[in-house]
Structures are given as C-alpha cells and as structure tokens.
Amino acid sequence: MLQRGVTLEEVDIAMKTASVFEYRHDGITKVGYYAEERKLFVGTVDGLVTTVMTGIGPEYVEKERAGMRMTYDREVDAAYLYVQDPIAPGSAVTTHVCEVNTPGSIHLDLDRDGRLLGVEILDASRVLTESALRNAERLYAPAASRK
Questions:
Q1: Model pTM?
Q2: Which pLDDT tens digit goes with each residue over 70-99?
Q3: What is the DSSP string of 8-69?
Q4: Beta strand 19-25 pairing with 28-35
C-alpha cells in the first residue's frame, strides 16, 4: 500500500467512511470501498484487504457495481449471465433462441412482461473469451450425479 502512496490509516478511514458495495472479480464476491474525494478504491474478501488502487474515477466503481453474475458449468459447457439476480422460480416464462452467426446457441429468458432476466450460452467455450469463463462462478455437479 505504501508504494501506492496510501497509508494503513487511509485504508482504515476509507473502510469506515467510504461508499460500500459488493462486486465480483475472478469468480469471487468481494466488498469494495470507494472514497471519491481521494479517488481511493479498497477491495476486500472476508474482511481482508486484497486490493488498493489510487486515481480511480467513479466510472470504474460504477462498472464494478453494475457487474452481472455469470455462472459456468464446464461439464456441459454452458454459461448463464444473470441480468436479474436472483431469478425467482417460475418468473422466466419465455425463452427466445437467438439467431446469430456464432458457434453454440444463445437463449434469452424473459419474464411475462418481456423483460430480460438472463442469457443462457451453450457451447460457451466457443462463444465466450477465456477471461470471461475464468471469471465466471463455477458450477459443479455432485459426484453422484456424474456417474
């Protein structure tokens, strides 16, 4: 932190007084603290500081706040991007299969008013970047169901 010109005291003050929000990074839910006047961003996991950045503008924080959750099941090579999270059981009443010129298949889940709830991506490893898949929350089937 000191190499970035930030003292432990400044980090402590930011964690007590700055705006607080949850965000996802590398498939992990983290807590972010942003002190706009100092342009200081502090990221934590389970209360431990993992990230300290200076010179951060509000657009970076808004991008982190707006991040959508994506899951990936490697076994079936399917990803799901949650536009609304959580999606209440039964609220996705229509699925629209997109006609796009890409490998795999993209399905849009819509509620009864036609609002987008989520996007299912089949053959995800052929459609999404390695970085996107690496940052997605991993889904694992119980060992008994894999037989």
A1: 0.56
A2: 899 999 999 999 888 778 899 999 999 998
A3: HHHHHHHHHHSEEEEEEETTEEEEEEEETTTTEEEEEETTEEEEEEES--HHHHHHHHTPPE
A4: antiparallel
